[in-house]
Amino acid sequence: MTPQYWMQATEELSQNDLILKRLIECFVEEKLVSGACAFTTLARSIVGQQISVKAADSVWKRIISSSPKFTPSFILQSNDDLLRSCGLSGQKVVYLRDLAQYFSQTLKPEQAWNQLSDQELISELTQIKGIGRWTAEMFLIFHMQRPDIFPLDDIGLQRAISRFYNNNQPVDKKMMNAIALPWRPWRTVATWYLWRALDPLPVEY
């Protein structure tokens, strides 16, 4: 599912930022898509921590191929050797088990999440072991499809802003926030296009 706001966001971003206008035109047929359940999105975000998009995609495919259905029960019932053979570190196995335990004990958490602001939801999610701010932000972008998430700690976003807005020179958070100010309230969409301009595959979680 693509966010209903996507067309409006791309139009307004194109009007306000010539660099984004060119990037949007390069990938005019592509959009952020969310098709996974909440558990799968968070699990995939954990898998993607601190590794490249390509490496994360490879590990995720091995995990999926090892299970006919990816569920909290699958993670809780699988032994460590199976999960690590898919390319997961021991720490990520622990994180996935804690996430699976949370979902097995919490009935329909999204009903409550929908009522929370972005920051409130980030605070709620980061109480789960292995979910830091970056992982929570990926969840808000890809599953909740919140329109104005700006993951300052994301290395890909930092690289893209450096390349397209600062002549490949390093950028700090203050500069990133200043550059992104005209993108509000659509910083999620701007971030997605900046990612897309760097990676051979669309980022997915």
Question: Mind sketching the topology for me?
Answer:
Layout: H1 6-16, H2 18-26, H3 38-47, H4 53-65, H5 72-77, H6 80-85, H7 90-105, H8 109-113, H9 118-125, H10 133-142, H11 155-165, H12 173-180, H13 187-198
Helix pairs in contact: 1-2, 2-13, 3-7, 3-10, 9-10, 11-13
| Estimated helix fraction | 55-70%
Number of helices: 13
Kindly state the number of beta strands: 0
Span from first to last CA? 13 Å
Low-confidence stretches: none
Question: Mind telling me which CATH architecture of the largest domain this is?
Answer: Orthogonal Bundle
Can you identify the CATH superfamily of the largest domain? Hypothetical protein, domain 2
Protein traits:
205 residues, Endonuclease Iii, domain 2, Endonuclease III, domain 1, 2 domains, mainly alpha
Structure explained in plain terms:
It is a single chain. The protein is mostly helical. The chain contains 13 helices and no strands. It folds into two domains: 6-32 and 149-198, Orthogonal Bundle (Endonuclease Iii, domain 2); 38-142, Orthogonal Bundle (Endonuclease III, domain 1). Helix content is 61%, strand content 0%. The mean pLDDT is 92.
Explain briefly what this protein structure is.
By secondary structure, the chain is mainly alpha-helical.
